[in-house]
Amino acid sequence: MNNLEKEAKQFMKWKNISTITATEYQRSACKTAIFPKELGVQYLALGLTGEAGEVANKVKKLIRDGGDTPDKRKEIGKELGDVCWYLAVLAEELGSNLGKIMEDNLDKLEDRRARGVLGGSGDNR
Question: Are the C-beta atoms of residues 19 and 9 closer than 8 Å to each other?
Answer without folding.
Answer: yes
